[in-house]
Amino acid sequence: MSLVGTYVQMADTFWYEDPVIYNDDIFICFDDDDPPELVYKSDGKHSTKQEQLETAIDILNNNDIKFKDLKLNVHSGRMYPPDYTTMHDSISFFFTLMGPIDTKYKNLKHDGRFAYKKDIPGEGVFYGGW
Predict the structure, then answer these.
(1) Rounded to whole angstroms, what are the CA distances from 114 to 13, 33, 48, 49, 54?
(2) What is the number of alpha carbons within 13 Å of residue 129 lying toward its C-beta?
């Protein structure tokens, strides 16, 4: 549970509050006390940790997400945006975000958008300023 807002500066230069980037099989979420997290559907397919890592790298690269320090988090059941109604067997990785995310071709849910960091009310965790 987040105690403060998480704000991510995207390639359009706006700051997005608590964004989730998703499609049918993956999502990327941001939290105030964990690194950015990539979650993807495994749906019961057994794979080695190396195959899981390669899949995560491919997903991030194919979505033009600049990253480093990819680290396996968990294999668990997760619900997916936009409606969060169905549980799927999933694998997740934490990573360090190394650049802005292009929002032009991605589904994006968020709780607010700000043109300037100084306009964001209160405290928060910030990813941006590249």
Answers:
(1) 9, 22, 41, 39, 35
(2) 6
The answer to whether the beta carbons of residues 7 and 15 sit under 8 Å apart is yes
pTM: predicted TM-score of the whole model, two decimal places: 0.92
Q: Is residue 120 part of a domain?
A: no
Q: What is the DSSP string of 26-46?
A: EEEE--SSS--EEEEE-TT--
Instruction: Tell me the per-residue pLDDT of 32-62, one tens digit each, with 9 for 90 and over.
Output: 889 999 999 997 777 889 999 999 999 999 9
Q: Quick check: is 42 in a domain? A: yes
CB atoms within 10 A of CB 63: 16
Task: Count how many domains the chain has.
Answer: 1
Q: Please tell me the distance from the alpha carbon of residue 42 to that of residue 7, in angstroms, as a whole number.
A: 28
Domain containing residue 76:
22-113
pLDDT digits (tens, 9 = 90+) for 3-28: 889 999 999 999 999 999 999 899 99
